[in-house]
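hey so i finally got around to running both of the ones u sent me last week. sorry it took forever, my laptop kept dying halfway thru and i had to restart like 3 times lol. anyway pasting them below in the order u listed, first the sequence line then the structure token line for each. didnt double check formatting much so if smth looks off just lmk and ill redo it

first one:
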Amino acid sequence: MWRYLPKKRHKFFLIGAIVLMVLGFGLLAILDQTGLLNIAHHSKARSLSEIKSSQILRVATLNNSTSYFIYKGRPMGFHHDLAERFCEDQDLKCEFYICQGYDDALKMVQEGKADLIAMDLTPTPKRKHHLRFTSPIGVSQSVVVQRKKENSAHFISKIEQLDDQEIHVQIGTIFKDDLHKIKRKQDIDLEIIESDEGMESLIQMVAQGTISFTVCDERLARANATFEDNIDISMQLSKPLPLAWAVDKNADSLEVLVNSWLKKIKKSKKLKTLEQKYFNTQKNSFYTDEQNLVLRSGQLCEFDSLIKLNAVRMGWDWRILAAIIYHESRFNPKAESWAGAQGLMQLMPNTGQNFGLKSPFDPKQNIKAGTSLLIALQKKFSQHGIQGLELQKFTVAAFHSGYGHVSDAIQLAEIYHVNTKIWTHHVDSFMIRKSHAKYYRQKNVKYGYSRGYQTVRYVDDVFNLYHHYQNLVEL
């Protein structure tokens, strides 16, 4: 046809064709941005009837202190517990899959590998193109995390005071854009440093004084403030925004079911109970409170005879066992932690039952079961060839955080050619690193994120107290 057209018309026809192609591609881009192209996209999401038939709900979540973590061998976390309760009420089993962030979770849903994303998500217009969001499960806003005024040389109370400051943010988060908007609006010279570290690692770096400022979601900041008593999170950077779970764009039946269930638990105050547990309950008081360290008539406590009897079973100096019990419960047989650990040795219910504990607040039963757990842990580490005082330190570390987390630290130490049979300044350094994504996301690390620095501090505290007991009471 082309050769029969006059040259002039040939030229206009070609230009017109190019214009139509450009407009066509532009229209496709607009449709893609609005999500209209997704209508014809074949969804791999399972239907609600398929989920119920399988009796399994696959949940994508994060490995952090608000979503999912392992404490004393037990999975916990706000979103973990909430998803578990939902599944229990629907006669489903929860299967959790750890993802690296929102993009990873979205991919899992789109590929049909997960049915529900259970983490703090803000329903933005862009995200709504790909997902359906449930009714809100909370609200949050971005906040500045800094050391408390009495511990900081750079404490700020106004946004304009960020002028000439450095602020670290996790790479790939929305906080960099938020801070750039503030820079332009306030006309301040603020250096924004993106980091590969996770938000919780950055918060710990602030608490330790390594960096001065970071920015994160208020809920995550609140959860970490229950562990770190020297951080300030009062300075807000954004307005409160709703937080929700999400499902595939085509999973409308599952969305309706989750929303109906959320409406019920909000009325029953179960959601408030979980929020109180994970975002408001102070979790570090057992490690900072040094009161009650009083000797009476040459005794440490009224349970000295029980402690001595059980220490013989282990072949340990009874004063080490006493130091563990003090740090767990302050010798209070009725103690119960935020996580549900009970009695003198703060045993989790399932763990206690595994060692024959029927009455967790009975001193005799509790110390016996706790000692049995220590014996089992000691046996596991002795199989690694660990001996003497080092064996005791590894055992105490595992009593605090669970065998799995300490085993992960041993694996990491082996990878980096560090002596795996020595705790102090060797394996303990990798226990600390288990709070950093670079380490807890490695393939050989099975138990993921851990506040390993707390475990290291716990071991140090127990053995420091043991040395005091050696000076004060006889063997």
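and the second one:
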Amino acid sequence: MSIVEVRVPNVGESVAEVTLSQWLKPNGAFVKQDEPICEFESDKATLELPAEASGKLIHVAQEGDDLEIGALVAKIDTSVQAEDTSSPGPEQLTTSEAPNPTTESAPTTTAPSSYASGHPSPAAAKILREANIDPKEVQGSGKDGRITKEDALKAVANQKQTPTPEPSSSTPEPTPSTASDTVQQPFSRNERRKKMSRMRRTIAARLVSAKNQTAMLTTFNEIDMRGVIELRKKYQEQFVKKYGIKLGFMSIFAKACAKALMEMPDVNAFIEGNEIVYHDYVDISIAIATPTGLVVPPVRNVESLHFADIERKIKELADKARAGKLTIEEMQGGTFTITNGGVFGSLMSTPILNEPQSAILGMHAIKERPVVVDGQIVVRPMMYVALSYDHRIIDGATSVTFLVRIKELVEDPTKLLLDI
């Protein structure tokens, strides 16, 4: 018997441990070389582990296990061939095994073409579970018919578009609940426990580290968004026609931040030991919410990109993040972060630093408010902005000046276009 050991591969410089989130092939199944056998969840991404040889799969680790790089995951018995795992044909049956023609044969069931067929990925399973959708009702488009995250999102969208049928007059009245049911439902004492995902644990650890290891402080300001709104309204159609993508608020803020960061290098630096590391470029990490947690992939060299290039890159990263397809390389780096809680309705917040970076800008919801302009009370679309920064490297005067510079550039976007 020839056994091939399958171990956790090296998935990135900063990744020391992964979680076995799901087996894609059952124990004892015949697998082909390079066929995905399980899924790992690392700190930053989800990845599949291919079989290193063809043969019978023997599980060693269990779903939910935390495994170090190099740990044994499974074994493959290469002496077993595909036909060895199949059921014997009629010509292979002995006399004692042959079915009795006088006896009624038991009904047989046809095995599915693939174990993955109709089986959702972890991200897809979570989406379907939250939307109360049976995976059996979803057609999988992934490998071997597996239900991907995109399939789950489409199923949820279709469910929302499908109108709820009106109850017919023939529908029987619901049976009145008993007294005990009425009491138990609103006063439930049930508790549930669920293991935190690796990404959630990593996020938790980094947020606590940022609070404990930095001298974090937050300063606030407000921005009149009228100029940007009018700019987008006036040129949006021409912008889309020329570049094939809409001009959003994020690219304008990213470009404003890049300009201010190049002018104030302390905000674009970080502390490493007893040294300060300065960057002569601006890589802005964009906070993206996904079903498994918040990710912050960077858009690189924002100071040199056009608005359309920034919009395209943000869209590309967001699509990959929500589909769980970001690579380790796409998640690494960043010299500054922008997070936009306004898309969820947040009016004001104090964002937490994305270590080792020294500052993060928080955007918020745009609300019409009365403000005083030239001695007159007028109604303007206003946004609160927050800058959290590491006071060890960034002085209060620098942080306030930086945020005022952002306000100045966004309120008069012509300065961005003229680079003044």
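quick thing i noticed on the 2nd:
The chain has three domains: 1-82, 116-152, 216-418.
anyway thats it, ttyl
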